[in-house]
Amino acid sequence: MEVEFIFDSALKGLKESVGNFVTSFDHANYQRILKRVDAEEKKESDPRAKVHTKNVQNYVVHLEDSSILESTEYKFQLASSHATTTAKNLCRERGSVADPAWMTTEAQKIAASDKNGLIKEVAVLRGNELVENGMNLFWNVGKGASIEPCCVMIHYQGNKDSADVDFAIVGKGVTYDTGGLNIKMAMMEAMYIDKGGSCAVLGALQGCIDLGLKKNIVFACGFAENAIGADAYKPNDILTAMNGLTVEIANTDAEGRLVLSDTMTCVQRKFNPKKVAYIATLTGASIVSLGKSTGAIFSSEGDKGDSMVEAFKNASKDAHEPMWPMPLNDEHRDSIKGKYGADISNMGESRWGGACHAAAFLERFIEDERPWAHLDIAGPAMFGKSENGDATGFGAKLLLSYIDKCL
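The structure corresponding to this sequence follows.
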């Protein structure tokens, strides 16, 4: 099916209206059918062999003033829609397909789509290479799975006149989360979405490539499956992180912060970014606090009125992806102190303030007092406003808006 949209030139706020309409249409038009058959049995006549992603396959926008279609506002809306769809497609892929190796390949494909020389480097650490680099927290989360964990770091250099990295974003990519030996008691069937943070990162990367933004950004993803098996890491293990901190594993289901923390250390030491952020479907506690459609922003700099919190709030308004600042104080920092001689624990001492405890843990892996933020998108990435829930692609437009308009 092909559709033509014709806009009256007298329409108020035409430039903004066209972009917003096309973005809304793209999201409403989205349909993904995941039925598959084995490749050997696949037949063209078998409808299950097709993966549909759209209801209306093609559309044309007609305007009397065609210059609007060349405006930065319209191009941003198109790119942000593509970013969200990219994130949604990746995140909706189920766990038995979208394992760490598959996600790494997809990340490399997005980087390879750059035809303008914007991607300076794609660095991948696999399996034992994580151990060799001291990333023991990350390795332990993924070592019980049949597919080895992978750390992917993509250096986007849009500003060729500068060697500095303006910003680095680290996304949680737990491709399936059983909870480990502290097995999940609820919602395990939705845990293919636990890679939502990394999918948002890759969606934002796609958006930057589409727009050719003149910023220097590192897009990093930690891919691991938190599996149950003979090699799985164990409750009360004490592990040494890449930055030298010792960590008690109070619960193997608090795994995302372990993957994020080692990845963040690696990114900071390899690229020395000016600012950094985490994005993750990290805690059910954030959903309890803020509901299903709003994400949480944490930053120690929020106490100082720092611009990073305000910048992400502004980006969330621009993207129509709601985020809300949350507290991070000494109560939360004290709650993650180790009980058995380690520096810190991966869980707070009580269930109260769980999202804040996770942020306090991640704070310990920020080096050189650089500005940082943590975005917990568990609710909106998994549910949005839907009762049933499926991956929404939340976070991709938020990140793209922040990079484009707030850096």
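The chain has a mean pLDDT of 91.
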